[in-house]
Every structure is written in C-alpha cells, then in structure tokens.
Amino acid sequence: MKFRRKALVVIPGLILLAGASALAQSGRRLKVVPPPPPPPVAEPADTKTQNQDEVPPVTAQKSEVYACSDDKTLTRVLDPDANKEQTFTMKQVDTSAKILKRPPPSYTREARSAGVQGYVILRVVLSSNGKIGQIRVLRGLPAGLTESGIRAACKIQFEPALKDGKTVSQSVQVEYSFRLY
Which domain covers residue 166, as residue numbers? Predict the structure, then answer.
C-alpha cells in the first residue's frame, strides 16, 4: 500500500520532469545565415561620363534666393540685387496680383519615411511680365520639402499687380503645409 501511494506521487512527477526537460532549450542558439548578396551589376561605360556632366541637386537653404528655370531645376541666385526690378508690396499697388492657380507641392519619399512635417514659407516675386521672379526661403524643412515648395511656387499662375494703370511686380508670402495623415 505504501508503495502504491509513493508510486502515485512519484510517477506523475517523473512524467512532468521528463516533459519539461524535453521542451527545455539546450542553451545552444540556432545560427542564422544571412542570404548571399546579389551579384554586382556591371554599369555601362556611358553612364560614367553622363554622371560627371550632371549638376548636383540644389539643397535650398534659409535666406537664400532661388529662381525658376525652364528645365524644372532650381537655380540659386548668387547676386539677388544684380537684375532686380522694383517690387511692390500689397499696400503699395492699386490692384493686387491675382493668383489663378497654385499647385500643391509633393511630399518626398525621404521626408515621408522620416516623418517630417511642418511649414515652408517663401517670399515670391510675381513679376510684371506674368512669370515668377525670385524666390526667397523664409522658413524651410529638411528632406527635400523646401525644394518641393520652391518647385510648386514656380508653377503658380497669376495676373500681375497694377499701379497707375501699368503692370508691376509684387512680392507675396506663400506658405506650404506638409502634414502626414
């Protein structure tokens, strides 16, 4: 009888001990072998000469002046006073410039992946000839968002301001909001 009682207590204990030791780790870790890198792709010889001729992209900085170009690249104006026509503020003109179309800027992949949000504020000259003049960065954002704002400002369509019956250049402040939803 005593043997049976001890056996009833010991046998389930042995079963639990055997099960726990079977499930326990041995202490060794499984080595994870990374996949092999892709084979290198040979570049054609022509691209090396093209890359040398390419102009590096402009990184917009605060208080710098930029101009729109026909090939949709940004051009930094080194001497903003060199070819400066007289610009007026909204209070100095008889009829303010009327913005007809203001396309939104695009969010860059880099800024989206980094979670960059905020405002880009630009001072834009709406020239008397109906084209965008100089653009000054008042407040910028990193990751290409300032450049995106400048490119969007270059696409603004407007009717020039009037002073004494003549078209004149007017400077306006343009603000672009960048928000991730």
Answer: 56-178
Q: Residues 13-41: what's their mean pLDDT?
A: 63
Q: Where are the beta strands (DSSP E) in 13-97?
A: 65-68, 74-76, 87-88
Is the pLDDT confidence value at 50 over 50? no
Q: Tally helices (H) and strands (E) across the chain.
A: 4, 9
β-pair type (74-76, 65-68): antiparallel
User: Token digits for 75?
Assistant: 């051009």
Reported confidence tier of residue 19, pLDDT bands at 50, 70, 90: low
Whether the CB-CB separation of 145 and 107 falls below 8 Å is answered with: yes
Domain membership flag for residue 32: no
Q: How many domains, in total, are found in the chain?
A: 1
Distance CA 61, CA 146 (A): 8
pTM: 0.62
Return the SS3 of 57. Answer: coil
Query: Does some domain include residue 116?
Result: yes
Mean pLDDT confidence for 57-76:
70
